[in-house]
What does this fold into?
Amino acid sequence: MSSSPVMVGPYGGTIYQLQASEGDLFQVCFGGQCLFCESLHVGMAHLNRMERLAVSAHTAQTAS
It folds into this structure.
């Protein structure tokens, strides 16, 4: 794994680029959950969704 993320989301989520035997693999992490994607583009979409859902849930809790 590279020592620094290739992307950091606005809410602190990260994407790391890994070298796999069949090419690049991207590890997407946010809020203690991680998943793996075969492209940075897909990883960015997942990170955006993960952060958006977490922020929406937090906003709903604080509004109650």
